[in-house]
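Sanity check

After download, print the first record. It should look like this:
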Amino acid sequence: MIVGGSCHDRGMTSTNSPLVTIITLMIGLILGLVIGFLIWRRGSSGTAIDSTDLTEQLSAARAERDLYKSERDNAVAGSKLAGELEAMKGAMEKLQKEAGDADRRRIEAESDIRAQVRAMSTHNESLVAQTKAIAGALTNAATRGKFGEAQLELMLENAGLRKDIEFTAQRSTTDADSSGIPDITVKMPGGTKLFIDSKFPFDRFIEAHEEEDSDAREALFAEHRKDLFSHVQTLAKRGYHASQDSPDFVILFVPFESLLTEALRVDPLFLENAFKLNVTIATPTSMMALLRTIGNVYSRNAVARNAEDISKSAASFMKDLTLLHSRIIKVGTAINSLSKAYSELIPTAESTVKRAAAKILSYGVSGDKDKLALAYPDAPAQVREIKNSDIAAEDDFIDAEEVKEDE
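Expected structure tokens:
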């Protein structure tokens, strides 16, 4: 009964709180009427009113009223609790959904990471295999020379130098006692030639990187330094720098920065000792700077040559233009003179030739009278005279000079 009442009152309380108050007042009013009716009835029957019974009835009424209030309060509390539980249920459902989405995203991210790790592993294995293949190929001296020469040619082209024009690539050799043909010869502006050797020692260097023992590795790097300096000495003996068309040094190109770095770490005076033998060691960084400098000089020289050619062409054009201008002046002057002479000739011809011919025809001599009757055409209009000062004054273009006939 309480549960049912609670559900009923919960619905009424949550929606109609004023109605509950009115019902309570009505119940109190009904109880008052009942109590008054009982008092009146006992009084009318002549019996004394038992205060004990009246008290018990009032207590029963109050108990019923308190019971109703308790049920009403329980209904209100139950309604609030149900609302809070409903809100908590919604929050829990939302939290569960978010947790499920987060877990799904975590699984997807872990799957992507695993895929990337596998791809990186495959790529690293391929890179290691290619590195080993390159290292194995570079163990051959001839292959090293070709590799260095190919890389050097690519750098030369990137610097704007053209093969067989600004530089020439000749046969690479690995024999120190051979003909001594340089790998690359760069023709510098001014006729100077720069000789570059692209071979380099590599065996001890790669062995040092494969060695796990630190002491053995340092010993191999020391051997690498000796091999590199031995190659410097061999290059110095070829005497490229002694050529009249070459500066007092030859360049040894090493395609890896670490080849020179490890030699310098073992021997800080390595470059200075190489300079004493007229050998300059260049890595890709320093070589590119040198080649770009040479390419820039070529570009500037080309611009200077173009400017000189333009100046010569302009001077020749101005000379031809002056000649043409002078000839036009002469032709115009001649036309005007001829027109003036023709104008002066017509009156003379009319007063002499035509009159005398008409007189002869009047003597009966045969002749074409119609042609003699034709009028002489008018002289052409005077040609506008062009003067040297006109162009200079109006256009400020050239200072034309008179050109003589024999020119």
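If your output differs, re-run the checksum step. Summary of this record's structure: The two ends are 140 Å apart (CA to CA).
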